[in-house]
Design goal:
This protein has a seven-stranded mixed sheet. A two-stranded antiparallel ribbon has the order 4-7. The radius of gyration is 13 Å and the shape is globular. 9% of the residues lie in helices and 39% in strands. A hairpin with a 5-residue loop joins strand 5 and strand 6. The termini are close together. By secondary structure, the chain is mainly beta. It has one domain: Protein of unknown function DUF192 (Jelly Rolls, Sandwich), CATH 2.60.120.
C-alpha cells in the first residue's frame, strides 16, 4: 500500500506515493534495476545502511531513528557507492534527487508516514 511521507517539523512532503520495503529480500533489492516510475520514494525498515550496487540513478537518502527523527541525510548519492550508513538509524528513505532540498529537511526533523488511498 502506498504511503505519504511528511516532514512535520517543516510542514513539507517528501513523497506522495512511496513504497515500503520491510522484508529482507525487498530491502536488499531496494531500488536496484528500477527508476522512480509510478512512485516517488521507498522506505526501508528496519535498515541502518544501504548499498548503491546496480542502481541506475543518483538518489537522496534520509536515515531516521525509531522515533522517526532524521539522523543523517545524503543528497545526490551516486550509483555504485558500495556502502552508506548511519549509526542509530532504524530506517532509510530513498528519494528522487532534490527531494531533500525541496522539503527543506534537516537532521533532527520529525517524519510522519501516512497510508494513502
Amino acid at each position: 500500500m502506498p504511503m505519504i511521507i511528511r516532514n512535520t517539523t517543516r510542514g513539507t512532503t517528501l513523497a506522495e506515493c512511496a513504497r515500503s520495503a520491510v522484508t529482507i529480500w525487498s530491502r536488499t533489492l531496494g531500488l536496484m534495476f528500477q527508476r522512480f516510475e509510478g512512485f516517488d520514494g521507498m522506505m526501508l525498515r528496519p535498515a541502518n545502511a544501504i548499498h548503491m550496487c546496480f542502481m541506475r540513478m543518483p538518489i537522496d537518502v534520509i536515515f531516521f531513528d525509531k522515533r522517526l527523527t532524521i539522523v543523517k541525510m545524503v543528497p545526490k548519492l551516486v550509483p555504485w557507492r558500495l556502502f552508506c550508513g548511519a549509526l542509530g538509524a532504524a530506517g532509510v528513505l530513498e528519494l528522487p534527487v532534490d527531494a531533500i532540498a525541496r522539503s527543506q529537511s534537516q537532521p533532527g526533523d520529525q517524519l510522519e508516514f501516512l497510508m494513502s488511498s
